[in-house]
Design a protein that fits this description.
The complex is a heterodimer of chains A (264) and B (439). With 264 residues, chain A is of the alpha/beta class. Chain A folds into two domains: 1-86 and 167-264, P-loop containing nucleotide triphosphate hydrolases (Rossmann fold, 3-Layer(aba) Sandwich); 96-166, no CATH class. Chain A has helices spanning 49-56, 79-84, 102-106, 121-135, 151-164, 181-196, 208-211, 237-246, 260-263, and strands spanning 11-20, 23-33, 38-42, 64-69, 72-73, 87-90, 169-173, 200-205, 217-222, 225-231, 254-255. The longest helix of chain A has 16 residues, at 181-196. Chain B has helices at residues 2-16, 21-29, 33-52, 60-85, 93-115, 123-149, 155-174, 184-187, 198-226, 234-256, 262-272, 289-307, 309-319, 321-326, 331-357, 368-378, 390-409, 414-438. In chain B, helix 4 (60-85) packs antiparallel against helix 15 (331-357), helix 6 (123-149) runs antiparallel to helix 7 and helix 12 packs across helix 13 (309-319). Chain B is globular, with a radius of gyration of 24 Å. The relative contact order of chain B is 0.18. Classes of the chains: A alpha/beta (264), B mainly alpha (439). Chain A binds chain B through residues 57, 59, 78-80, 83, 89, 91, 93-100, 104, 108-111, 113, 117-119, 122-123, 125-126, 129-130, 132-133, 137, 140, 145, and chain B through 1, 3-5, 7-8, 11, 223-224, 226-227, 229, 306-309, 312, 315-320, 322-329, 386-387.
Chain lengths: 264, 439
Amino acid sequence: MADTTAPTPLIDMHNISIAFGGIRAVDDASIDLFPGEVVALLGHNGAGKSTLIKILSGAYKRDSGQIFVNGEEASIANPRDAKKYGIETIYQTLALADNVDAAANLFLGRELMTGWGTLDDGAMEAEARKVMGRLNPRFQRFKEPVVKLSGGQRQSVAIARAILFNARILIMDEPTAALGPQETAQVGELVMQLKADGIGIFLISHDIHDVFELADRVCVMKNGRVVGTARTGDVTQDEVLGMIILGKCPPGAIPGPGALKIAA
Amino acid sequence: MTDATSNTPAVDRARESELSPVGRFLKATELDIRMLGMVGALLVIWVGIHILSGGLFLTPRNLWNLSVQTSSVAIMATGMVLVIVMRNIDLSVGSVEGVIGMVMGVAQAEFLIRVIGFQLGNPWIWVIALAAGVALGLIIGALQGFIIAYLEVPAFIVTLGGLLIWRGMAWLITSGRTVAPLDATFQLMGGGPRGSIGATASWIVGILACVAVALMLLNGRSQRKRFKFPLRPVWAESLLGVVACAAILGAVWIANSYPWPIGIVRQYAQRNGITVPEGGLFIAHGIAIPVLIAVAVGIVMTFITRRTRFGRYVFAIGGNPEAAELAGINTRWVTMKVFMIMGVLAAISAAIASARLNASTNALGTLDELLVIAAAVIGGTSLAGGSGTVLGAMLGALLMQSLQSGMVLLGIDSPLQSVVVGAVLVVAVWLDTVYRKRV
């Protein structure tokens, strides 16, 4: 982390903790992200990665810890706050309102209005056609509720919503879980394209093979704690697997509070 | 983007050639099959009852009465659509209607006259009584909505409690005594010969409505042109306009074909010094005021659901509450507002229903909650949330009322009427389920 070129990280989450009932879902976790960087957040189901990221996107409120955006402390209490900081999230469930059309979903919570204070559906559909044309040029089903779309089309609606508002930080929670090989490759291309635009991306996955190629760094979590962080060039996939399964931090990685040797 | 839009017509034409003539027609006009089905069912019921009753049903008099009887339930059904779309239910509307009717009755017939000392017939009486009723509806709705949205008690329970509480309150206000008569101006909201606007005004309203339909079609077309979206064919636009205007003017014509009863004409003639000619004097009712109110409510509610941010949020929350929350929508406040609207609509219905009776009784609105829910559901509102239309619910109310008053005309006993209405509700929802699975 120290040898990075950019001086201030886009996102810096410090010592974040949250508990549900008696369970510490995230325990003293720290993670950072630089512009144009892809950081993969890995771990088993229940390792706390989705929870950590939902704190960043405003879906959960942290018990302790600080979040810095561009070096300045940010107060994120709800999804609206996060969006103000340019943090956009593509949730694992996609979080689409199934009964309304693509344009309504893209602008949900941020509708374009006419001078009369009414919804400007025409303008929203036109914008939707533009952004969807970039992501999925064959997509034409703008009048149908998204429940009728295929998995890949729904995914592109969710992605389009995230990039429509000039996101600076993009969180993708298991972005390819519901996709076939071809669509997965498409998402990969998109990630590289956004990265080239200088957007910082968190990729969350429980499957290392999905993300190792795309990521600049990996951060592994286990039982709510960070095992370690490493540049993908400094570690092998097997070593990362060891971090995920055993919590063992290899020499190429910077150990976190959850690493086995510290815990032991 | 230019690519995408220039491709569209080609794709549409290719698909269109695969469709049957009916499919092409539906695609060109963009009409909803479900809505057409409902209109069809309504016409079948009307013609069926007309034949069975030996020509009693499709008369200006019966249709005019039908329109007045439908108003009160139709108004509440428009609000129930929003409630059900958000995956909630409101079982209390009938009781809320009852307690508000009672408060408005007591206000105008007793409180304002005896306690405040207003003269009988003071124009402020009906204004204050109506305003008090609407305010009470808003407060009751806000209270129930607050408990549902912020205290997280299920709507079913809160409004089931409300069903008992507000009915009990209505009784407590006068210990069960009926309050009558009501203010003369207030009574106009209930319809009747005086509560109708007459032939000339009805034609004016009808023509204005036709102009509005034409303007809306033109505006929709120019909006689509502005963004280069596919346009409906000109013949389809014209057909929609002509059919809508024919329906409006036809309804006005029917309302204008129903004359005042002879007794009232005679009184009117005496008072105005007119001599009644040999064949009697034909004075048309025209559109009834409660029907005008219901139509206005329908238009406002349609506008709210289709064109405002609030309406969009109601549907999005109904489709996926979690997604709406993650999109930054304040779902609790939206929920509370929906119940506030429901309360206000119950107040308007209470005004119409009590004005029609010319009395406030503590039984006013009993079982209306079930009619209102049935109207919304028959009108295509899904209990699973996320879908429903205001127009559908109003047609649903008309359908229910047609069945009921039709059965009265046929001389069917009231227990059997209940059996039929219940069966129709179940069958309608079953048909809707089948339809949803296939589409």
